[in-house]
């Protein structure tokens, strides 16, 4: 290439005027049809007219590469000339062709291509180029040209009619490269879905693509192109399943390949069949239905592969759905009906042999067909359900009955899918009596497994609207009650509770009228008659069932009073273990609270009823305790109060801001000023002053736990009245109270409020106050532990919300690791900082929690922990390690893995150091050393 | 009992070493080597005084393709768990594997064991066998 001449080189640097350099054209001796408009004459002379095809090729290559860079700048007239030039060059020597195609590809991207040129380029390519004798890249170029034109000149190409289709068939015939096939398949798919004329070439087009089916391609190892077998499968399937016109050729192919020895071929055929069913009509399927059915049946009956079975069932489902969809004209045969008849004929009789191998495959086939449409569902249930009912009676063994009932369950679940069914259409309705009697017999069978299936069937029947009659429903409730209360097996009894829970919202009246009163009676009566059964377990079941059945607002209004009434009775009782009873009631109340959260009305009813009642009971107990200190009250024990916390919390988190504000205006004055007027029983012997000093009031102070549960669960935008005063009281209590439970609770409550407190001067002041109280408390005196607890909770509250003060408090905590007395507690405190707390300071109670707080804490504080460790005396070194391990333990694993190398410089030293105790005299020491050394070997090593 | 012989404590007993071998799991296999009868206590020999350990292991079938990996894993486990003074010999129970000689040679060759553990893929597989299961 003559690149040495500076004046000519300069010329090349002036596009786009380069192309309109008229000076060049005038001095050119190359005939115009061999030379593009404006092509520099020196180049034309030296390359394009050169007799050596290689040199000519290089010239065109240069031109094409330039065009690929600047095709968007070309003018229409220039494009015309270039197209004519390139078309002409297609007749040139085969060495030149790759470069010519590159140029045409550049031109195919020009927006200014004049009408008619796209067709002319394609005709020239179809005519002059034998595409499959080109290299892969050049074939790819041809596909790209076609794709570009199809994207922008659709109408023009369609004017070619079926010639375009035929031309393309010849282009791709014999293609072998997976990269090219992906493009070619896409072109064929576009031809079909964009309605290009296929003319007489449907079969040819099918042949040229279906010859790749089923795809058998394994990418070479380290394949840089990243084409997977699945890519090819899906893109070929998109072609084959794109038009009903292929049906007559494709269906025989699929039937043949379903019988293949290769599982992948089977699966591909089945999936392709299912895809075809989405667009086929009766017409296409008619002729092949018998063979399709017999292939599907054979595969399901014979296969050992769950995958093949699943795909067969999916294909049968799709096939039935396709037949159901077709609109019938009056004179054609109903193919669906005859198809289902053959399915029934081949499968039905196997259902009568519950011990035989084919029973489940048959049931699954029938269910796959039945699930396709309302019509298939009717047709099949009408035939199968009576048969199953009859078989249930014929087979007395519970294992056989279980199989039959499980099949019945499957068919009923399909019925459920179609929702409410017209009465005259429902074949099922006429079978109500026998179905119910079978289900009730299963529920009374001694076999727990059969009972469980019976319960599931019952749940489905209940959800079929209008199926169960009122007398049936009464029986249903009685059976469930019997299982809940008296069935030995807890599995059955729990399943019955869950069934009651899911049926209750459908039939609220019968459950609140018949089940709830019975459960209430049992709860009361069991105390008097202490029979052979452990009464506590019966009581436990009643409580669980009351909670489980509280799934409808009208039922909640019945169960809550029963549960609260029971709580009052427990509190009055004087037996040992009462606290455990309180916990049980609270667990049930908690479950109900969670079930009420989504329904605003139930939520408010629950809050209004339960929260004041619990507060009143607790206040009363606390006052009695103050006057008669020796009478131990179950309600005031730590575990009882701790169980009430989640109840109140769950009752408060989902309140609307208005209702929450209403409630908070009662609860806060109760604790600050002893305002008891809103409590249900509000005549108390003395005043309620939880924040007052004095030994006698210890019991009242414990109730701060209930205040915490309420006030720390409110949405962040609810304004808390007298918040400043409340915070000061909590602060004082947390630092001065001798009882660890009360002090910790006060600290948590303070922290929960501080976390949600809006930033600003007020918050800074209250935090300063807290620091001022903590620091002297930590330094010395009888309440050092309390001060540390407060420090931990406040630090947590601030770390979670990225408050600037948090680092100062964390440093304080790090300093305490070196404290001989408080060090170990401070070290464990790092676990508290990093872990999710169950009652306050978590997302569920609207706390301000930044998602990356753990990572941030890790980056900020681990270097300090490591540094502290090195500087610490031998007696407190362990505290730093413990703190570090707590931080690492709670770090998300991906973060830990990336950060670990920073800790690994010690790995080799540790492994060496641990070699010595491997030889220790004591076996226990050796054992620990082996375990630790093994772990250290694995740390940061592959395979972990 | 009988932990002292000629004044030298018998700290590393046969039973103890057997337990160590049992904690090796063949890759993605739900059973331990003990349950598979690949290692048996009688085929573990230990001489604490002379600091030698010899373990014979029995591949499940004569053509077991995992024999080398299992042997290597047992050897690595013992090297990591025993004091350095011990010489660890791991080999196939005579007559139980088609390539017995080749595998034994490979396992006895210090250089080749070290080289195997330099290979990150192989190390990964060995580590998986040595990760404690919960």
UniProtKB/TrEMBL annotation, chain A:
Residues 46-302 form the MMS19 N-terminal domain. Keywords: Cytoplasm, Cytoskeleton, DNA damage, DNA repair, Nucleus, Repeat. GO terms for biological process: DNA repair; iron-sulfur cluster assembly; protein maturation. InterPro entries: ARM-like (IPR011989), ARM-type_fold (IPR016024), MMS19 (IPR039920), MMS19_C (IPR024687), MMS19_N (IPR029240). It is found in: Cytoplasm, Cytoskeleton, Spindle; Nucleus. Residues 542-905 form the MMS19 C-terminal domain. GO terms for cellular component: cytosolic [4Fe-4S] assembly targeting complex; MMXD complex; nucleus. The keyword Transferase does not apply. It comes from the Eukaryota. Belongs to the MET18/MMS19 family. Component of the CIA complex. Key component of the cytosolic iron-sulfur protein assembly (CIA) complex, a multiprotein complex that mediates the incorporation of iron-sulfur cluster into apoproteins specifically involved in DNA metabolism and genomic integrity. In the CIA complex, MMS19 acts as an adapter between early-acting CIA components and a subset of cellular target iron-sulfur proteins. This is MMS19 nucleotide excision repair protein. It comes from Apteryx owenii. The lineage of its organism: Eukaryota, Metazoa, Chordata, Craniata, Vertebrata.
UniProtKB/TrEMBL annotation, chain B:
It comes from Apteryx owenii. Belongs to the MIP18 family. Residues 29-91 form the MIP18 family-like domain. The keyword Ribosomal protein does not apply. Keywords: Chromosome partition. Component of the cytosolic iron-sulfur protein assembly (CIA) complex, a multiprotein complex that mediates the incorporation of iron-sulfur cluster into extramitochondrial Fe/S proteins. As a CIA complex component and in collaboration with CIAO1 and MMS19, binds to and facilitates the assembly of most cytosolic-nuclear Fe/S proteins. As part of the mitotic spindle-associated MMXD complex it plays a role in chromosome segregation, probably by facilitating iron-sulfur cluster assembly into ERCC2/XPD. InterPro entries: FSCA_dom_sf, MIP18, MIP18-like. One of its GO terms (cellular component) is cytosolic [4Fe-4S] assembly targeting complex. GO terms for biological process: chromosome segregation; protein maturation. Pfam families: FeS_assembly_P (PF01883). This is Cytosolic iron-sulfur assembly component 2B. Component of the CIA complex. Component of the MMXD complex, which includes CIAO1, ERCC2, CIAO2B, MMS19 and SLC25A5. Interacts with CIAO1, ERCC2 and MMS19; the interactions are direct. Interacts with KIF4A; the interaction facilitates the transfer of Fe-S clusters to KIF4A to ensure proper localization of KIF4A to the mitotic machinery. Interacts with CCDC117; the interaction is direct. The keyword Cell division does not apply. It comes from the Eukaryota.
